């Protein structure tokens, strides 16, 4: 995990020490269940509860000799348990009963952190969309002026995209919140299924329905695809804000950390969209993690170990990056400076060309033949684009008389239908 792109709460969750604490919890729960079945002495379970979580440094020291993390963890854990009780630790279990069940618990908690960040982003987008619902600007298709819209409408689209991402994350959380305590090839050969039921229920997990030895890796792939999809939605926001911050556009500006901000070591005037650029770059990482997760789905027979080294990178990093990205995106949108005057200037910059579709619509309504009407309006538009003269004047030269010169209001008569949909989304917020 890269500290620069990892927030403390996510770093703590995926630390070695936190992982070993979760492993201890799984071992104790499994022993509690065994004690209920009369298979493990209650005194042994009490000794396990009293034992300290082994230090990561001690586990690493033992692993240098054993080359097996779970066995090294168990050895370190049992150093703090009397021998008579230590013999009952991990009874009937295999390594991945411990690893995957703990992992399911950790991934569910990590997804909760990411979901909370996504909800904050949705909240900010909804609030700012409502704030700027009437802030006129030009809509662009292919990067070229199209028709009038509002900045609030643009932000509303992003709010709904984040909302869809949250729905995908919720489904993915259900998929990964799964454990298994089923033995070496998943047949419960040496362990009662009641142990698995107790452990999973205590951790808020479902049980893998047909375990091999491991939890199915398509679950993790689903999670990282959902994280990558959220990242792509954030990238769309950040990309748009980058485009709107170009010098010749300058319709918005991202917040600066302080008055001491410096954008360039050589050019003192520079105010770069670095936060937006960073968010776009992180989305590329998330797509890479999702691809690697898909590669991990297919394992040999009941299991192999090819997935493990990959997961040690992609699961903590993917969730950390997604969490960081969503958190910083919310801060970016919340602090974004909006310049309505620049937006209106861009809308008016082409002398009325952005209203050409309304002109064509009215000509057709007056009985003009479509191809002839289109060509007349297009010819007038081309002269306006070349000369800078008002579109109404060049239309007149084509014999097109405007009863009422169109303006932005003509294009936003039904705009409130989107606002009503946004208000329904607003009801989802706390």
From TrEMBL:
CDD domains linked: Adenylsuccinate_lyase_1 (cd01360)
SMART domains: ADSL_C
InterPro entries, per database record: AdenyloSucc_lyase_C (IPR019468), Fumarase/histidase_N (IPR024083), Fumarate_lyase_CS (IPR020557), Fumarate_lyase_fam (IPR000362), Fumarate_lyase_N (IPR022761), L-Aspartase-like (IPR008948), Pur_lyase (IPR004769)
Tagged with keyword Lyase: yes
Pathway: Purine metabolism; AMP biosynthesis via de novo pathway; AMP from IMP: step 2/2; Purine metabolism; IMP biosynthesis via de novo pathway; 5-amino-1-(5-phospho-D-ribosyl)imidazole-4-carboxamide from 5-amino-1-(5-phospho-D-ribosyl)imidazole-4-carboxylate: step 2/2
Protein keywords: Lyase
Reactions it catalyzes: N(6)-(1,2-dicarboxyethyl)-AMP = fumarate + AMP; (2S)-2-[5-amino-1-(5-phospho-beta-D-ribosyl)imidazole-4-carboxamido]succinate = 5-amino-1-(5-phospho-beta-D-ribosyl)imidazole-4-carboxamide + fumarate
The protein, known as: Adenylosuccinate lyase
Domain Adenylosuccinate lyase C-terminal: 351-423
GO MF annotation: an example: lyase activity
Enzyme Commission identifier(s): 4.3.2.2
PANTHER family: ADENYLOSUCCINATE LYASE
Recorded family membership: Belongs to the lyase 1 family. Adenylosuccinate lyase subfamily.
Organism: Streptomyces synnematoformans
Keyword Lyase set for record: yes
